[in-house]
Amino acid sequence: MRSDIKIPKRIASIIIHSLKGGVVPRLGLPYITVGRKDEIDALLHDMDIIADGGASFRFIVGKYGSGKSFLLQSVRNYMMDNGFVVADCDLSPERRLQGTKGQGLATYKELIQNIATKTRPEGGALNLILDKWIMNVQNKVATEGDLEGDALYEATQKEISNIIMSMDELVHGFDFAKLIKMYYKAYYTDDAQLKSNITKWFRGEYSTKTEAKNELMVNIIVSDDDWYEYIKLFAQFFKMAGYKGFMIMIDELVNIYKIPNAITRQYNYEKILTMYNDTLQGKAKNLGFIMCGTPLAIEDKRRGVYSYEALRSRLTEGKFSREGARDMLAPIIRLDPLSAEEMLVLCGKLASIHEVLYDYDLDITDEDLSLFIRIEYTRVGADTMITPREIIRDFIELLDILYQKKDLDIKTILNSDEFSFAKSNLLEKQDETLSLLSDTSGRKDDFASFNI
Predict the structure, then answer these.
(1) How far is CA 297 from the centre of its chain?
(2) Which bin fits 158, alpha (ψ -120 to 50), beta or left (φ > 0)?
(3) Which residues contact 226 (CB under 8 A, 6 or more apart)?
(4) Residue 57: strand pairing partners
(5) Half-sphere exposure of residue 386, counting CA atoms within 13 Å on the CB side?
(6) Separation CA 158–CA 140 (nearest Å)
(7) What is the Cα–Cα distance from 401 to 405, expressed in whole angstroms?
(8) CB 244 within 8 A of CB 84
(9) What is the 3-state secondary structure (H, E, C) of the chain?
(10) pTM of the predicted model as reported, rounded to 2 decimal places
């Protein structure tokens, strides 16, 4: 199961240290992606729908450490590489979808700050997108009309107005389009202050309408109540700017579940219903949503998403979906546990990356990896409670010890008293798991299919 991975040491460091800390690395995911083929295919199908002018809405449901964030980041990277604009954020007590103290606006601000593209994957790409689009329009006008100076400025303003004319039909579209034309003026005259003010408005950082009117001559600002309308405007603008669509990724829905006030929770679920209906009814274009939460945050009929009847009736699974045969076209994608085979492949990849990071030869065989996986999967309660996060952290800790203690070998560690609690259960299940993991060397083609 070991493989020679050619990976920059910087990326290897990000992968190993992020996973050991229990978080998903932003970079290098293709080096460690295994499993989730059906889930990824389903989300990539949504990508085609968005690119064709449609919209999509998905929930990804799984317990803590099951791989929700990993799947989210994998799809995020793939969409950026294929011409999409993406924005992601985690909900928190200060960031919700709706609130009375600016929590909804805080989510909007985080999303706009995290706008990312292939050339700016770390976020903060809004000004880059605006400048690139304006430059392309201006160059096109200059080339076709052989114009320069004031004539070029007037012709480019007219072309921009023609391109964004359709935005006037959307809620707040007139003011949004006005600000884009104003941004071109700032771009052409190299007015850094005006550009900064317009960017400030797009980011939702004006606290009063008076302040916005004084600085930009617009009578509205982004607020808690209407921030979602501006997300739809951005989606349409990004399409006009040459991108395929706009994908919004929101994690940690459990923070809505945790809201103590029932009325506030219902307002947040009502906002989700609005987004869901817009995407399915064609009111949103070139826009996708992926929201992640735990089973409790979704299915609890007292506090979860299912406590809002209009959502529960739309999202509840039918009678035929079950583990191993999920309906990947349904609004909810449930993450089944990664198999022992898939975790074996992943551990082999991590061992190779660990070698690259610390520049040493790791004395670990396929049989050692199989033993580690068997022990992990035969612990008491592992059939229902074990998660990829726990196994990964255990394995990286094991690799770190082997690197630091050259006099130890993996069999000594796995046979130590610290693992004795797993051994009693291991004997009972060893025959079953051994048949699953045996002859791994002859199954590399099967494992390869799990990669993106």
Answers:
(1) 18
(2) alpha
(3) 171, 172
(4) 289
(5) 22
(6) 13
(7) 6
(8) yes
(9) CCCCCCCCHHHHHHHHHHHHCCCCCCCCHHHCCCCCHHHHHHHHHHHHHHHCCCEEEEEEECCCCCCHHHHHHHHHHHHHHCCCEEEEEECECCECCCCCCCHHHHHHHHHHHCCEECCECCCCCHHHHHHHHHHHHHHHHHHHHCCCHHHHHHHHHHHHHHHCHHHHHCCCHHHHHHHHHHHHHHHHHCCHHHHHHHHHHHCCCCCCHHHHHHHHCCCCCCCCCCHHHHHHHHHHHHHHCCCCCEEEEEECCHHHHCCCCHHHHHHHHHHHHHHHHHHHHCCCCCEEEEEEECHHHHHCCCCCHHHCHHHHHHHCCCCCCECCECCCCCCEEECCCCCHHHHHHHHHHHHHHHHHHHCCCCCCCHHHHHHHHHHHHCCCCHHHHCCHHHHHHHHHHHHHHHHHCCCCCHHHHHCCHHHHHHHHHHHHHHHHHHHHHCCHHHHHHHHHCCCC
(10) 0.80
The amino acid at 388: P
3-state secondary structure 13-69: HHHHHHHHCCCCCCCCHHHCCCCCHHHHHHHHHHHHHHHCCCEEEEEEECCCCCCHH
Rounded to an integer, what distance in angstroms lies between the CA atom of residue 416 and that of residue 5? 30
List beta partners, residue 202: none
* Tokens (6 digits) for 159: 């072309």
Domains and CATH numbers, the chain: 36-117+243-334 (3.40.50.300), 127-216 (no CATH), 340-448 (no CATH)
Residue that is written with structure tokens 């520049």 in the block = 359
- 452 residues of the chain, pLDDT tens digit each: 555 678 888 999 999 999 888 888 877 888 888 777 888 888 888 999 999 999 999 999 988 777 788 888 888 988 999 999 999 999 999 999 998 889 999 999 999 999 999 999 989 999 999 999 999 999 989 888 777 788 888 999 999 988 888 887 888 989 999 999 999 999 999 999 999 999 999 999 999 999 999 999 999 999 999 999 999 999 999 999 999 999 999 999 999 999 999 999 999 999 999 999 999 998 999 999 999 998 999 999 999 999 999 999 988 875 555 565 566 678 898 887 777 788 888 888 899 999 889 888 888 888 888 888 888 877 655 555 677 788 888 889 888 988 888 877 787 777 766 554 444 444 444 444 444 444 444 433 433 333 33
